[in-house]
Amino acid sequence: MRKEIILQGIATAIALLFCYAALSKLTDFTRSKSEMLNQVFPESVALILVWAIPVLELLIVALLLYKPLRLTGFYASFILLALFTIYIAITMTGVFGRIPCSCGGILKYMSYSVHLIFNIFFLLLALTGILLKRTPIINSHILN
Known about the structure:
By secondary structure, the protein is mainly α. Helices cover 72% and strands 0% of the residues. It is globular, with a radius of gyration of 17 Å.
């Protein structure tokens, strides 16, 4: 019972993050497109990502909130968060020669270092969700 409450809490937290991120991109699509075109990707890739990322984020929200597919949602959120985190870390090294900013909403007020920590936190939440969801309770009194 307690394990399910923890899993629900983790899934909800990650779902809220992705829902907020997707809706902020879609509600100000012109700004999102402009910021995506400012990234280091070729324009053709950026024009695909500007649609693909919010759609993927909303798909992950659905997976996380639909209990039978929650584990898939945790894996998908872990992969997407890992990609975002790696991109931020690489960008911070200066390898691209500039640091393009494309964060919307409250995230635009974060430095890259804080954003990296923020992403790592949610990455660890997703990993915790995966581990809890995959691990059967051998000793049921541990989490009950």
